[in-house]
What we know:
Blueprint: E1 2-8, E2 12-19, E3 24-32, H1 36-46, E4 49-54, H2 63-74
Parallel strand pairs: 1-4
Antiparallel strand pairs: 1-2, 2-3
Amino acid sequence: MYYLGIDWGESECGLALADLETRIATGYKQLKKEDLWNEVCLLKGKYELSGIVLGKTGEGNNKDREKFIEEARKLKLPV
């Protein structure tokens, strides 16, 4: 089982997978925000994701981030 870590940026996001058994997180991929949701769905099918750890952005508009959280919860992934 894994946690997915997301470093939320203005136009891109960095992803990391954390193995719950070994307690080690490893960088996975950096991608554009518009590709994020498809990647999360692929990872959910490939790994047993237990949840998402979502980094908080600094200043600015967080509408995209809030929308992402709503969608992730629909997949029963705690954020």
